[in-house]
Amino acid sequence: LDASLVSPWFSLQGQTAAALTYRAVYVDAPASSNRLDLEARTESSGWTPLLSWTSTHGQSGGEAVTIDLSSYAAEPRVQLRWRYSAAQGDAGFGAQVDQIRLTCSPYLFSDHFESRLTTHWSATAP
What we know:
This protein is mostly beta strands. The chain is 0% helix and 47% strand.
């Protein structure tokens, strides 16, 4: 089994720092070569490992993960991939990734809606 969750391409141009946060559960099969990897690539480089789990993590509600992506700041195109690989017959084991967030500095987008500044918003009815 070889399954992947791949992000769309995104740009970190104009950013000085970037961090990826998410929650994940990974249940490893005993005596197997199963793994959950997080990888990144750019237009000029292939998939580069950022994190690899080969033992169980986050079984009770998921584990919070933070990855510094500052080395990719200023890249015009970046893509992320979570890749789960498992031996045949390892049913009942696996991986889940949720609550994915990319935080950059300076901000990629800010709407000021929380401060009640509604001049940046517009809506039209169909």
